[in-house]
Write a structure and sequence with these properties.
Number of strands: 10
Order of helices and strands: EHEEHHEEEEEEEHH
Mean pLDDT: 77
Strand content: 25-35%
Largest sheet: 8 strands, antiparallel
Number of helices: 5
Distance between the termini: 54 Å
Oligomer: single chain
Shape: elongated
Radius of gyration: 34 Å
Helix content: 25-40%
Structural class: alpha+beta
C-alpha cells in the first residue's frame, strides 16, 4: 500500500498594488515578484510504502470434523479449481470419474440451487453396489444431498454430503455423512480433507457390519477420487528452450548472407 502526504503549502504572493506585506513586498513590480517566487520553499511529497500481507494458508472454518479421516492431501491447484473438479456446475469431472470407477451407473447430478435454509444445495442420484456381512452383494439406489456450508472465494470451501440407501434393508435408519474441506495452502496449492461418519437413527442388529461395509465403500471411492484429482491437477512443465548447436547457428548465418 502507498500513502501520500499532501504537498507543503506555499506562501501567498501579494498582488500588484496590494497593501499586503507578505515577504516585505509592497506594490511589487514583476521583477520583485519573480524574486519572491525564487524564495519560496521547495514543494515536497513523502511516500510511505507499507508491505502487502498475503496469507500463507487458510484455516479450515469448521469447528469440528467427523470421526473418520479419509483424505488429507495437498494438491497443486487453487481452491477454486479443486472445488470445480469436485462440485462444479459444469461437470464435477473428478467426482463423476470416481463414481463411475466404483461401478456406479445411471448417474444424475442436479444444478446447485438455494435450499429452504438458504444454503446452496444439489442432489446426486445413482445406482451402485453394496455388500455387507451376511448380506449378499446387491445393486441398489443411492441418494446424496450436497450442501455448501462455507464458500470463501479463493480461500476455502466446505461441502457436506449426506448419503442414503432407501431401498436397502435398514436403509432408512442410517445416513452416510461426508465432509469435504478445501482450503488455500499457498500459491497454487490446496489442502483437501475428507472426513466421514455413519449416523444411525435407531438401533440395528447389523450396525457394525453395515458401518464397516459403508466405510470400505467410501475408502474405495476416495482412492479413485484422489487418483482422478491428482491426474487433473498435475503441473505441466514449461517447454524447454532449445539452443541451436554451433554448426546449426553458423549454417544459419551463412544462409542469411
Amino acid at each position: 500500500f502507498v500513502s501520500v502526504r499532501p504537498l507543503a503549502r506555499a506562501p501567498s504572493l501579494p498582488l500588484r498594488g496590494s497593501d499586503d506585506e507578505g515577504d516585505g513586498v509592497h506594490g511589487a513590480g514583476r521583477g520583485d515578484a519573480v524574486a519572491a517566487l525564487a524564495n519560496w520553499p521547495p514543494l515536497t511529497m513523502t511516500v510511505t510504502l507499507r508491505p502487502l500481507v498475503v496469507a500463507l494458508s487458510a484455516t479450515c472454518p469448521c469447528s469440528d470434523h467427523t470421526v473418520n479421516r479419509i483424505i488429507d492431501e495437498v494438491l497443486p491447484a487453487t481452491p477454486q479449481d479443486v472445488f470445480a473438479l469436485l462440485f462444479g456446475d459444469d461437470d464435477s469431472k473428478c467426482l463423476v470419474e470416481a463414481h463411475l470407477r466404483t461401478e456406479a451407473s445411471d448417474l444424475k447430478i442436479r444444478q446447485w440451487a438455494l435450499g429452504e435454509d438458504g444454503r446452496e444445495t444439489r442432489t446426486v442420484a445413482f445406482v451402485g453396489p453394496f455388500k455387507a456381512f451376511m448380506i449378499p452383494k446387491v445393486i441398489t439406489d443411492y441418494r446424496v444431498t450436497d450442501v455448501i456450508l462455507n464458500r470463501d472465494l479463493g480461500m476455502s470451501y466446505v461441502v457436506e454430503r449426506t448419503g442414503q440407501l432407501p431401498k436397502l434393508p435398514y436403509g432408512d435408519v442410517f445416513n452416510i455423512l461426508a465432509r469435504y474441506c478445501i482450503t488455500y495452502d499457498g500459491e497454487s496449492r490446496t489442502r483437501l480433507r475428507l472426513t466421514c461418519a455413519t449416523v444411525f437413527h435407531r438401533k440395528v442388529i447389523y450396525k457394525e457390519s453395515i458401518e464397516t461395509s459403508l466405510l470400505s465403500g467410501i475408502y474405495d471411492f476416495s482412492r479413485e477420487l484422489l487418483h482422478s484429482l491428482k491426474s487433473a491437477t498435475v503441473p505441466h512443465p514449461a517447454s524447454p528452450i532449445r539452443t541451436p548447436s554451433p554448426s546449426v547457428a553458423a549454417a544459419g548465418r551463412r544462409r542469411s548472407r
